[in-house]
Amino acid sequence: MDKYNFKIIEKKWQNLWEEKKSFKTKIDKKKKKFYCLEMFPYPSGKIHMGHVRNYTIGDVLARYKSLNGYNVLHPMGWDSFGMPAENAARQNNLDPKKWTESNINNMKLQLKELGISVDWDREISTCSSDYYKHQQKIFLEFYDKGLVYRKENYVNWDPVDQTVLANEQVIDGKGWRSGALVERKKLNQWFFKITKFSEDLLNGLEKLNEWPNKVKIMQKNWIGKSFGCEIDFKIEGSSNIDKIKCFTTRPDTLFGFSFLALSVDHPVSNFYKDNNKFEEFKKNCSKTGTTEESIAQAEKIGFKTDLFAVHPLDKNIKVPVYFANFVLMDYGFGAVFGCPAHDQRDLDFALKYKLPIKTVVKPDDEGDDFTVQKEAYDGPGVIINSGIFNGLKAPEDSISKAIEVLENKQIGKKQINFRLKDWGISRQRYWGCPIPIAYDEENNIVKVPDEMLPIKLPDDINLKTQGNPLDHQEDWKKIVINGKNCNLETDTLDTFVDSSWYFLRFCSPKNSSPFDLEEVNYWMPVDQYIGGVEHAILHLLYSRFFLKALNYNTNKIDSDEPFRGLFTQGMVCHETYKDENENWLSPDEVSSDDGKNFFLKNKPSSKVIVGSSESMSKSKKNTINPEEIIKNYGADSVRIFILSDSPPEKDIQWSEQGMMAAHKFIQKFWLLHSEIKKNYIDNLSNKNYKFDEDLEKFTNQLINKINYNLEKFSYNVIIANFHETYNYLKNKLVEKSLSENFLINYSKILSMMMPVVPHLASECLDELNQLKSIKWPDLDKKYLTQSEFNIVVQINGKKKAIIKVNEELEENELISKIKKMKEVSKIFKEKKINKHIYVKNKIVNFIVHD
RNA sequence: GCCCUCGUGGUGAAAUUGGUAGACACAAAGGACUUAAAAUCCUUGCCGCUUGCGGAGUGCCAGUUCGAGUCUGGCCGAGGGCACCA
To answer: Model pTM?
Structure first.
């Protein structure tokens, strides 16, 4: 019997799918649609195991839905703008465009070799002007709607990448890509007004039932809605300043007021410009927040002004005004009232500057003499030492009462604050979408008119310049708009803009406008979106914003959320290896005889230190190249392995043994199939076969299980189900109990294997001449009802025996039968039965005592 | 510090959601076939006394229940997110 030659067979089917355009989709209103989308890749040149996992999971779903009669949209494209191309081009003196295009061609071939069912006619690439010209139109649309603005602002400046980063792109004070310490810098920047939709973005989360809770909580925290109150404090000591506005969530602790703290960027700071000591203090502040130690230490420091703030409810109380490093300008009003007893930061500050600490909330189980010492109390309790607020239950009654009082006196009002900030989208890079804006000679903003779009990136560019290469392209910058000489904006858009609407473009990738409404309204929303959890906030929040912004004032798109279902898959991990000098080693440099001790392959005397298993990354060299694995084992084997063992949402450990086991399954199954074909199918004319009830039952139970596990994304269990199926069929062959209903059941089984191992299943079905009529098998529920049951016999909740019965047996009959069983009869003789609990066809539990 | 998730054999895990714990696989050991090896097949979760049987058992401690991996509370451990957000 021939071995399964995956090289020939997989190629054969892949060519056939390509020739026939098997996965091409178009609108079909008679069918239910299903939009299956995996996060599109950055074309780095080679696919990695993370891609293999992502796209295999998506492909299983797409093929399953398609077999179920859905009209499935399953497109693929390239997130092809971004820094790696620019860096690679700079280092190797290449053209970023050519570098990117050749990477795309290479990765496309690799994805095809995986056998994924993609409609390649819809392929898009964000770095192509065919794509970004529409993005420029959208930018201008947002501009017209007032959702884009430019302002001078402090930005997170990455000194290595020489670009601005969004807040979300700063991790632990470092750039998310470069890892460099981020600096503060004042620059003119373009912003999307995402904060306009804070409330919508928060409320929208509630409707996303098919999103992981984890992601929704992360977004919720990121948006950071808080309820509170703004309060005006009267200021004394300056003729220029009348009052200062603060935001607080605890207006009920107002009587604990002992200082007022301002951000160093607060407008009041303008009056201290010429004060050298203040400028020095300000410098010190900008240092904190950038280095790791200072975040860890987080020492509260302040600069005392000659101003005093008057207590809004008691004119006799006047407290000093400070500038303080822990107050942020871009949250609230850049000013806080300090209540040391009930806020740890305020307490730290008060202790340092010896300011009064007045306790105004006491826990329920403490007396009125309760005082805060070194630990602020922010728990529930009762208000004390606070005049009219005394005795109120904190926080539920006291906060609303405090707001009411302040509102009546017109010194404060209820206020909701969000942590979310507007999205800075300017990047000082060449390899990104040009912003379709120019500036006239008076530096006024001029929109690039529609007919002049796209603003294309210049082709020949000198990348060896400091900062943004486009800044140095004098010819390119010059543009005449409405007869006026203008200079183009040289910043390009954050690449997250590119990925915020690509799912819309997929619906009508060749349309002359950004998207065709009819197509979008047919396909959207994405029914299942699949990708890494690392995009939980950035990409997913931005995409949600885009849909709301596109619909703002226009309501063109029916769905107001882009992704109905979201699935976040786990990472692919591998052990890490280091040599004796702490250098990372790649798995193929390492060898082992016993699986315990490892040594260098080319130098067996050299020991290798095995480290923890971590997600595959180039820097740790613990990667496995999918291309080679596919070459050695075939796509179906890789697909089996990447789905088996671990549930898709969890991390998976790469193991060579696991890979081999997956391959062994493919080979075993092929062997079994060949035997079936030879011994049975070729002898179909033999009419002596009987109907096999047991097989019918097995198949229907399998359909039930696979359906259940597919819907739950328990793809690892499906692989186990296939192993069980193999074992079952193998036994059938051994028993030679083949039957007249064998072919139909076997075909059903193969159909269910199609989403996971499409090449093998296609080949087997085709050999049986069953491929053309393939569809997802229907479940015949009558085969799910059992006629025989294994009933567990328990004594005091502990399993003692199992009894086999058929359904007709009455409870009384069953009980008396059990009592005669030798496993339990002894117990019944010695003990007395109190009662028993009978769960039909499942369990009998006898409660006994001495 | 706050928020979230997860703790099941040597390993990855399953358990249709409160009813036979460990399906399916990997590894290891033993056995069968073989002159031998590879391949293949069979057996083995743990602790006791030879098979058979008995006992404990899903991080730990309580609780609810006839019955808990599953529900509740507390503790311990691991991972992830946020971090001066007033």
So the answer is: 0.93
Q: DSSP code of A558?
A: S
Query: Residue A637, Cα to own-chain centre: how many angstroms?
Result: 27
Query: Block means of pLDDT (10 residues each) for chain A, length 850 residues?
Result: 87 97 96 97 95 97 97 98 89 92 97 97 97 98 96 82 74 73 83 96 94 95 94 92 94 94 93 91 69 54 93 93 92 93 92 93 86 87 92 90 94 93 92 96 95 93 84 93 95 96 98 96 97 93 97 90 96 90 88 75 84 87 93 96 94 93 94 85 67 92 96 96 94 77 93 98 94 95 85 88 82 86 79 87 86
CA A643 to C1' B8, in angstroms, rounded, equals: 21
CA A359 to CA A386: how far, in whole Å? 9
Query: Nucleic chain B: which protein residues 87-126 of A have CB below 7 A from it?
Result: none
Could you give phi then psi for residue A167, rounded to 5 degrees? -55, -40
A645 touches strand B (CB under 7 A): yes
Rg (CA), chain A: 34
Please report the ipTM that was assigned to this predicted complex.
0.95
Euclidean distance between CA atoms A626 and A114, whole angstroms = 9
From residues 2-61 of A, which are strand B contacts by CB within 7 A? none
Residue type for A252, please?
D
- Protein footprint on strand B: which nucleotides are under 7 Å from a CB? 3-5, 11-17, 19-21, 23-28, 40-41, 54, 56, 66-68, 80-86
- Residue A846's nearest nucleotide, by CA–C1', is B66
Residues 175-214 of A with CB under 7 A from strand B: 213-214
Q: By C-alpha distance, which of A190, A195, A189, A184 is closest to A154? A: A184
